[in-house]
Amino acid sequence: MNDDDIRTQLRRELDSAPVWRLDPGDAIGRAGRHRRRRTAVTAVSVVVALGVTAASLVGLASFRRHGTILGGGSSRGSGSSASAPSFTQPSAPLVAAFTCDGSTTSPADVSVTAGPAGVRIEVDNTSGEAMGFDEPLGGTNAPRGRHELEDPDGGTGWPLGPGDYAVKCVPNSATDPDAIAGATLHVVDPNGFWVSDRLQCTTDQEFGGVGDYPAGVDGEPLDRAVHEALDGYAVPGDVIRPVGYPEAFRRQFALVRDGRNIVLATLLHLPDDTWLPGETGGCSGEDQVKGGFRAPIRRG
Predict the structure, then answer these.
(1) Phi and psi angles of residue 270, each rounded to the nearest 5 degrees, phi first
(2) Whose CB among 58, 134, 256, 276 lies 3.0–4.6 Å from 268's, allowing a Cys bridge?
(3) φ, ψ for residue 31 (rounded to 5)?
(4) CA atoms lying within 13 Å on the CB side of residue 107
(5) How far apart are the first and last CA of the chain?
(6) Between 70 and 135, the higher pLDDT residue
(7) What is the pLDDT, as a whole number, of residue 185?
(8) Residue 168, CB-side half-sphere exposure with 13 Å CA sphere
(9) What is the model's pTM?
(10) Spatial separation of the C-alpha atoms in residues 201 and 181, rounded to whole Å
(11) Among 77, 138, 87, 73, which Cα is nearest to 116's?
(12) Between 94 and 83, where is the model more confident?
């Protein structure tokens, strides 16, 4: 397989992923059964699907990521360069493949090469019953048989930065999930696709919020949605940069001040390929100006 074939394969997987695949009941069931990486964004998906109108911004107290990453680093990965070099042939597979029999998750150690949309994960569930697949920052369903798993927020690319993650399959009938043997997922990023989405606050205080929208709301071009999400926090001299993976299903952008990520915004991807501001979180106590500032978006 040459470089063009690899790029085509990765983009085909991303393009084929549906945007609003779960019905609201299934989404709520997943959220109750597994820890979710981005609870606020999942809530927006359910609100859009139901057509419920809520406040345009719901404050979330002490907005923080959670979960333990093996080997340290940020809660989402270790970070990388701001631009990706040309694609190179990976030494680790492009898909992390696990087999789950109800009592173990094997192999015990799996390495995977991240692509431009993130990390792809496949599970062969041989247990005969439905399972959940958990990683420190979230989880999803792992139905019977062999399936490539969707990230809880959509798409087959999981936004896991380079680093080691404790993962496991847990049967829905399990009464003691901690007793189920897990595995370690090693994410490598030889092409430098990942850009750190870690906040770099000068205090321990952070804020968070999420936009709620009725069904059928019109989206916007990506850059316009980014400005809507972040310009209110900006002052002259700030810039906006894409973070996370460049072709992730839900794009992330950071407001950068003096080299620090001070506000992060996740954009919701709508079926007509437009976007809306979703989850926003950042550092409390940073300087602001009345009316905000239209910070330039810098890519590369």
Answers:
(1) -95, 160
(2) 276
(3) -60, -35
(4) 8
(5) 27
(6) 135
(7) 97
(8) 18
(9) 0.71
(10) 36
(11) 87
(12) 94
Percent of the chain with pLDDT over 90: 61
Q: Which positions ≥6 away from 265 have C-beta within 8 Å?
A: 226, 229, 230, 252, 253, 254, 255, 277, 278, 279, 280
Residue type, 163: G
Residue 197 near residue 251 (C-beta atoms within 8 A): no
Tell me the C-alpha to C-alpha distance, in Å, between residue 238 and each of 209, 211, 245, 276, 298. Answer: 21, 23, 21, 22, 10
pLDDT reported for residue 37: 37
Give the whole-angstrom CA distance, residue 218 versus residue 65.
Answer: 29
Question: In angstroms, rounded to a whole number, what is the distance separating the alpha carbons of residues 1 and 70?
Answer: 32
The rounded distance, in Å, linking the Cα atoms of 113 and 162 is 9
Average pLDDT, the chain: 78
Structure token pair of residue 218: 């019109």
Residues in the chain: 300
Write the pLDDT tens digit of every residue in 183-209: 999 999 999 999 999 999 999 999 999
Q: Is the pLDDT confidence value at 129 over 70? A: yes
pLDDT in tens, 218-266: 999 999 999 999 999 999 999 999 999 999 999 999 999 999 999 999 9
